[in-house]
Amino acid sequence: METEKGLLIVLSGPSGVGKGTVRKAIFSEPDIQFEYSISVTSRKMRPGEVDGVDYFFKTRDEFETMIKNDELLEYTEYVGNYYGTPVDYVKKTLNEGKDVFLEIEVEGAKQVRNKFPDGLFIFLIPPSLSELENRIKTRGTETDDLIRSRMTVAKNELKMMNLYDYVVENDKVEHAVEKIKAIVIAEHCRRNRVEKRFKKILGVD
Ligand code: 5GP
């Protein structure tokens, strides 16, 4: 019997929203079934980080060789450093029927969406967006400069949302983790995914 492919789960969101914290909290849960795809980066190792655990740390030259050799599913340059997802690990793990989890910034997520339209794309938003909305609602006409500049940031963040399947507010890390776990469970129960499993019985190829 053909092994059912795993699900590619992509967690992304605007910078500073807490993607890393949420991802670490997810993987510290005892019952997590998905595999974390360790990224490659050209940035310097921070104290406490371990090569091959937090990232695969490479020089810029090494990273550029990986780009040339098509070894990355996606990559981007973010605040002066390269970040990317090794493609072989993702493909191999999905083919083994395991779910793969990526925690990446929005440019990379866009590239993955193009290559894996079937993936599960989750957008993490900051609680400040709801706060902002409430303030606008309760105060009616917001005109001060601070609100106006916060509105511009918020608008840009919200515009990125349209590439994603689900949106999770990171109000509390535990809440975000619970929601993400629930989304993954629901995604596995989606009719078109389940149907694929039963295609022999259903008599379709
Ligand atoms: P940091 O340097 O703080 O570990 O990560 C900076 C940013 O890079 C974070 O937003 C993180 O989500 C993102 N990032 C980490 N790994 C990857 C990757 O493989 N690809 C992309 N596109 N972004 C990544």
TrEMBL record:
Function: Essential for recycling GMP and indirectly, cGMP.
Gene name of the record: gmk
Cross-referenced CDD domains: GMPK
Molecular-function annotations in GO: GMP kinase activity
Listed PROSITE patterns: GUANYLATE_KINASE_1, GUANYLATE_KINASE_2
Pfam families per the UniProt record, alphabetical: Guanylate_kin (PF00625)
Binding site for ATP: G13, P14, S15, G16, V17, G18, K19, G20
Annotated protein name in UniProt: Guanylate kinase
Guanylate kinase-like domain boundaries: 6-185
Catalytic activity of the protein: GMP + ATP = GDP + ADP
Superkingdom per UniProt: Bacteria
UniProt record similarity statement: Belongs to the guanylate kinase family.
Location of this chain's protein in the cell: Cytoplasm
Keywords: ATP-binding, Cytoplasm, Kinase, Nucleotide-binding, Transferase
EC number, UniProt record: 2.7.4.8
SMART domains tied to this protein: GuKc (SM00072)
